[in-house]
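REVIEWER CHECKLIST
Item 1: Sequence provided? yes
Item 2: Single chain? yes
Item 3: Sequence as submitted:
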Amino acid sequence: MAETKQTSLSAWQERLQALKNVPPVLKIVWDSGPYVVMAGLVLRLLVSLVPVSAAWVTGAVIGQVTGIIMKKEPLTSHLWWLVGIEFALAAGGNLLGRVTDYYDSVLADRYTRHVSIQVMDHASKLDLQAYENPVFYDRLERARVQATDRLGMIQSIGRLFQQVLTTLWLSASILAFSPWLLLLLVGCLIPAFLGESHFAFLNYAKNFRQTPAKRQLDYLRQVGGSKEAAKELKLFGLSRFFTDRFTAISNAILDENLALSRKRLLAVSFLSILSQCGYYGAYVWAIVHTISGGLRINDLVFLTSAIMNASNNISQIFSTVSSIADQALFLTDLLAFFDMQPQVRSKPNALPAPRPVIKGFEFRNVWFRYPETDRWILRELNLKVEPGERIALIGQNGQGKTTIVKLMTRLYDPTQGQILLDGVDLREYDIEDLCSEIGVIFQDFMRYEMTARENIAVGRIESFDDLPAIESAAEKSLADGVVAKLAGGYDQMLGRRFEGGVDLSGGEWQKIALARAYLREAQVLILDEPTAALDAKAEFEVFQRFNELTIGKMALFISHRFSTVRMAERIVVLEDGCIAEEGNHEQLMALGQRYAEMFELQASSYR
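Item 4: Structure as written out by the authors:
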């Protein structure tokens, strides 16, 4: 029992602490549309005056009618003026409500756009290592959802502002008759508020727990309906396997959701009956005092309306505050996501990349291991890449070839040691400016669901409208032949996601991707096994062109095909994160060691 109470207390503390998340989000809302926010607040201020004004006018009308009927007072234009004012308040309130809804809709669109852009922009600045952490993916997923799903909280804050103002006007009116009435209303509503808050918190905790499972559902849904997986699903008979796994996970989530919903239904239903007791207790008090002569008929009408509206508004305030507090819990991951800062970033007053590069890159006693792992990928690596050199990196998988590329482009920083460019530590240079001088295509390059022109232009976005430059890059990568076969040419939509799109073969996609590297006109060109989907002849042609186009530049490529590797002026063989051998093809073959062994092994398969 003591543990349960402690857990409940902790939940309330967490809920209250979560309210600190509201101001930063309100700042985001304000930034998304300050004039829209101000218009909404003014409109809600006007709307909040309508209920108490309407209640007073309605009471006055009833008082006039009662006087005419009971006391035989003469009918005057005063009554019709009151009726006209009542009509104006009803029509005006309705109109103000619709205009408020319009501004809420405008604010919703502006906020959704603004916060979505912020999430995308911030995500692009984070370190690559973050994207290799499953915990980060859970947080990113929740941040993406919270960025738009918390729109309800924004609207709730607007409603709360209006409800509080309306309640203040009504409460002042009720206090004029009896302060006990207001205390009765509030006292009976508090248990319902606490109950709603408690179950809202349980719902948050449940959703937090379910995030990894929901990510699995999204993955299974994607695999079960993607063209990439369709062949294996049919050939291996995997459809039922994935469907059953999806069913099992979704059933577990459904059972948990239903169990909580049943408990909430029973508890909240009972507490809502208790809250009604407050309203009807106040209602009975007003009737009794009217019968005893303590109140007039018009006072009874006004007070009854005020009590009913105050009861509803106080209940709504508790509910809205509870909703805001509990939705604020969901904002924790969004704000924590925005608080994440990259470790790999440019220093203040960072240096521009050297133009031209004079000495080249130098790895000096570089050690590297990926975060949260114990295995060293690189061990005391010493390597120079000088201008005009074309170097091939070879070795078994996991020996650090791609890691070297990631370190050269500052996707990561060394765990120990230094990487120098023209004798200056790489960390002294501006990252964006450095990257602008390096053209890289990885094996897992992106296949953008955009036009052929846009797929190439992303390599140097400043050349987006420079079609001659794009065509020249395509010619260099041999992608011009691919584009020539497309019905829409450079304006042809690629991929099957959007209407009119056509898919390409793996080799055709690779030529398109290679064009991005050539478009950059960078001083350093790096190909990290980007031709894996090409046949031997096509790869030979690509690398032959690569050799021709990189004369005078630093060129680095990774390939498992030794017919291509032998084109390099210097071959670096990596083993256990160190340089095992280096030299040109003839020198390494003469050594008769690791390179020669791998070459002969591969050559024998073609004999």
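Item 5: Key structural point noted by reviewer: The mean pLDDT is 78.
Item 6: Recommendation: ____
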